[in-house]
Amino acid sequence: MPRSGEEARRRLQQAALELYAERGFDRTTTAEIAARAGVTERTFFRHFPDKREVLFGSEATLRADLTRSVAAAPEGLSPLEVLLHAFRKAGHILEGNRPFAEPRLAVIAATPALRERDLAKAAAMADALAAALRARGVGDRLAGLAAQVGWVAFHHAVGAWIADSGRSLDEHLDEAFAELRTLAVEMG
Amino acid sequence: MPRSGEEARRRLQQAALELYAERGFDRTTTAEIAARAGVTERTFFRHFPDKREVLFGSEATLRADLTRSVAAAPEGLSPLEVLLHAFRKAGHILEGNRPFAEPRLAVIAATPALRERDLAKAAAMADALAAALRARGVGDRLAGLAAQVGWVAFHHAVGAWIADSGRSLDEHLDEAFAELRTLAVEMG
DNA sequence: CCGGTAGTGTCAGTCGCTGTCACTAAGGCT
DNA sequence: AGCCTTAGTGACAGCGACTGACACTACCGG
């Protein structure tokens, strides 16, 4: 029953998220995911390289958004200001997807294997941000450091926003970057 | 031929590093590692939970060293200064182990699966550093941010030191933290 | 000398993942 | 309409990572 291919892919993602949330990542087999999606195990591995990657399908678009925002940031901003600018734009998208993203984050937080993959995606994101900064003329080494530090602050802000949804993500972002500044200035 | 247990463990680590370097991580089986170490595949998994962990046996002692140094740092220092203090001490140990650590880092850099595990270890290290900072009275959220940012700077310094061994790790550490300060101050 | 214990070998089995081949639905071409 | 290409799939066989269970043996203290 091959329909569009893209449809099977979405069903597999949905089925995987459900099963990971119900029984846990370790207690669900790829065959079960495929069965719930109405396809074969083999088809699962045609759409996703492994059992973890099925939860990380939207990272590529986020990366594209962020790098585009970095490129489109106004002239004359410092590297971290450029990143803050990009994070604000990406954050707005994230705020909309929250009901879908929340169970996903819960499953990832509860599964070491998925946390590893998540960290790898974060590292790739930081690399992409560093490349985007370099394209703006930021020094080679400095771009790498700025991208990683900026990403840490972003991640921190998202975590705070998850815990305290009362305030907007933008507020948490500003606060995280302010804390970053405080930390650095305190150094002799 | 059960001798000391600890001896088999060391032989397994050695054999694994050699084989990973020779054929690559993906092209070596756990059975081959066990064979070169003179034990059975089952024994490999008694000493290490999986094929990757065999390269990460010394992370626990590094973590212990770092957290101890954080606790022993002088009073009155800012969070990042405390971390810089701890990194200097750990760095001296690292400078001694270099001939052993270098092939290990090369293998990790060449293998995505091992990079994932490495990132997970780094995250655990940052968590431990954050806890050590909290024990010194640093605020809860700030400790987490400082630990991650500090670790990024440390990692950056180590990378620069690997590429440019002419200068000491301490110099690279100072430079990384100075760059960090510059980045933060540039922000409006 | 003996009993406990820790480290190991052996075997069987599950599951993640891959290569291969045949099949079928969908869309474009004449 | 009939055909042909192509993408998506099912079925099958197989490797390798990892686990549970059981038996065995070197060691260590009494």
UniProtKB/TrEMBL annotation, chains A, B:
The keyword Transcription regulation applies. Residues 29-48 bind DNA. The keyword Transcription regulation applies. Keywords: DNA-binding, Transcription, Transcription regulation. SUPFAM superfamilies: Homeodomain-like. It holds the Pfam family TetR_N. InterPro entries: DNA-bd_HTH_TetR-type_CS (IPR023772), Homeodomain-like_sf (IPR009057), HTH-type_TetR-like_transc_reg (IPR050109), HTH_TetR (IPR001647), MftR_C (IPR041347). It comes from the Bacteria. Residues 6-66 form the HTH tetR-type domain. This is TetR family transcriptional regulator. It comes from Amycolatopsis melonis.
